[in-house]
Structure formats: structure tokens, C-alpha cells
Write a structure and sequence with these properties.
Blueprint (H helix, E strand, L loop, with lengths): L3 E6 L4 E14 L2 E5 L6 E14 L4 E14 L2 E6 L2 E3 L5
Parallel strand pairs: 1-6
Antiparallel strand pairs: 1-2, 2-3, 2-4, 4-5, 5-6, 5-7
């Protein structure tokens, strides 16, 4: 199964780092879905949920308050203004 490396970082810390099969997040002009081999892209992201589908089929959610997305064919980097893991929310 093809995978893509995902990094979600904020000014405070690294929030998530790992391999994924799919990433969905709120782009500036609408929802973005990223698969391995995606065309390179840099765009702003809106506040919302980043959904990371891991290789084992489980999902990780990270909530961001905006930021920048960089996509390379084998790597995705989310530079968030502020971010928090979904599991850490009440």
C-alpha cells in the first residue's frame, strides 16, 4: 500500500508525525484530499479538522486554527498557527 509521510507542527510543538494513506483538511477554497503521489502544492488552510487516515485504517484527528499546507509527492507538512490533537479535546 502506498503511503505518504505527514507532519503537523505548531509554534509550540510537533503534533503528529507518521505515515498515512490519506489526509483531508480545510483548504482556503474548500476541502482538500491528499493521496500519496499528489501534485506539489502550497496553500493556506482554514480553521478546522485535519483527518489523517493511517495505514492500519485507523484515523487521527488534529484541529488547527489556520496555517499553511505544503504537499510534496511523498510528504505533507501542515504548519499550523495553533493545533491540538482530537484525543486531547474534552
Amino acid at each position: 500500500m502506498a503511503s505518504i509521510h505527514v507532519e503537523v507542527v505548531s509554534a509550540e510543538s510537533s503534533i503528529y508525525s507518521g505515515e498515512a494513506s490519506f489526509i483531508a483538511l480545510p483548504g482556503e477554497s474548500g476541502e482538500l484530499g491528499i493521496l500519496p503521489g499528489h501534485t506539489p502544492l502550497i496553500t493556506r488552510i482554514r480553521p478546522g479538522s485535519v483527518r489523517i487516515e493511517k495505514l492500519d485504517g485507523s484515523e487521527e484527528f488534529v484541529f488547527v486554527a489556520g496555517g499553511i499546507l505544503e504537499v510534496q509527492p511523498n510528504a505533507v507538512t501542515v504548519l499550523a498557527d495553533t493545533a491540538i490533537r482530537g484525543a486531547d479535546l474534552d
